[in-house]
């Protein structure tokens, strides 16, 4: 499948050193940033997107970026941002990736 890199959207994606080390340890070269949909509540919730290792089930629903040899898929349903930073948090087996500069304004 030919993915359209940086199609229709210009965004700078940063991956921190901590996140890079985490990806190298887990031997992953792909990750995706996706919208979290909360449908079990009576009011809409604004939450930061989820960052998951690997390739999304439907890569055609994502923009694809190459960041230092890591393919980052960005959900087309998320708001357009000029810059995004992916970091790692946690310790041991409870370690994961997250978007560190996502701001929710009310």
Automatic annotation (TrEMBL):
Domain of life: Bacteria
InterPro entries the UniProt entry points to: CC/Se_fam (IPR049744)
NCBIfam families: Moor_selen_rel
Record's protein name: Uncharacterized protein
Biological source species: Desulfosporosinus metallidurans
